[in-house]
Amino acid sequence: MSNSNWVALFPGQGSQTLGMAKELASEFPVAREVFEEGSDALRLDLKKLCWESDDATLTQTENTQPALLTASTAVFRVLKSELGFAPIGAAGHSLGEYSALVALGAIPYAKAVTWVRERGRAMQEAVPAGMGAMTAVMGLDDSTIETLCARASDEARKQTGQSSEIVTAANFNAPSQTVISGTVAAVTVAETLLKSGDIPGGKAIRLPVSAPFHSPLMKNASERMKSLFEKEAFTPAPLSAWIVPNRTARAHRESGVILKLLIDQIEGSVMWRQSLEAMSGAGHTQFVEVGPGKVVQGLIKRTLKDATSIGVSDVSSLKAFGEKLK
Question: To bridge 57 with a disulfide, which of 53, 133, 177, 253 should be the other Cys (CB 3.0-4.6 Å)?
């Protein structure tokens, strides 16, 4: 049961940093044990990966995903053990949804960390290297994004003669900030439409990612994860609080739909802005980002005017959040 009015939010890919959760792990055995448990489950030294590798290694998606899950889980367990923190609800940005489900007790961490390692591999292998791309689009509303993607997809098909060319909305991150994802040709056409002013008011920034995540091009990855879930025949445990999934942007506590939503999320859009707005609309205005980086806090500030947000990733921020809980 919750003992606070704070919602726990968990970051996704892009928030990883070398050294994440190292200070907490050196200070608190409960955090160190997460790294050891994950390393045993994966037969991979997660301490070395997170603290002693390099950016190129850490940003390989099959490494990023278990590393971020591990760091966020370590932070959450410290919050729980040191501050008695139990959130009123939770959500996670893309990959962060796994961290949220672990925090709420629906999926054991040791199982989740093996799943996201496979998820990373499946997503990377779904599309050959160099065939997909993602671009952040600033300044356009949802309907104009839809128009942009439809036009770019059509024009790319005409240019290449390939019916498989496609670009779609991947992440609704904040008002006027949407990430689009698809084939290189279709994404490039979308960028050209914006740069030329043919679709006015928007600006595109190509993202340094290795695959077109959250697009129909991830179909093979979602099928692999569906097969994995079916093979394991795992039943999620009851949730300790509500969660707002990326695919619905609606709070629920139904553990029976968790795995389907995780599969759907691989190909479907991440409705993060809509999730924040739904939580705010239900009266939830206090958010703590559990894990490395400040991406989630930045999106909160851009989306919700009256919300309070703080991040916990090290000892000093843990103490600062402890003061707010008093």
Answer: 53
Domain end call among 183, 209, 235:
209
**Rounded-to-integer distance, Cα 12 and Cα 171, Å:** 12
Active site residue 93: no
Q: What is the CATH number of the domain that holds 286?
A: 3.40.366.10
Count of the separate structural domains present in the chain:
2
Cα dist. 274→65, 78, 147, 196, 250 in Å?
24, 29, 19, 30, 9
Among 214, 215, 280, 313, which one carries the catalytic annotation?
214
Within this chain, do residues 68 and 23 fall inside the same structural domain, yes or no? Answer: yes
The answer to whether 91 touches 11, Cβ cutoff 8 Å, is no
Q: Is 94 a catalytic residue?
A: yes
CATH number at residue 191: 3.30.70.250
Provide the residue-wise pLDDT of the chain in tens; the chain has 326 residues: 677 899 999 999 989 999 999 999 999 999 999 999 999 999 999 999 999 999 999 988 899 999 999 999 999 999 999 999 999 999 999 999 999 999 999 999 999 999 999 999 999 999 988 899 999 999 999 999 999 999 999 999 999 999 999 999 999 999 999 999 999 999 999 999 999 999 999 999 999 887 899 999 999 999 999 999 999 989 999 999 999 999 999 999 999 999 999 999 999 999 999 999 999 999 999 999 999 999 999 999 999 999 999 999 999 999 999 999 98
Residue 1 lies in a domain: no
Q: Distance between CA atoms of 258 and 237, rounded to whole angstroms? A: 10
Full-model pTM: 0.96
Range of the domain at 224: 6-125+218-325
Q: Which of 209, 233, 216, 224 is nearest to 263 (CA)?
A: 224
CA distance 37 to 176: 40
Asked which of 209, 237, 272 is the last residue of a domain, the reply is 209
Tell whether 103 and 239 lie within a shared domain. Answer: yes
Instruction: Give me the phi and psi of 301, to 5 degrees please.
Output: -65, -30
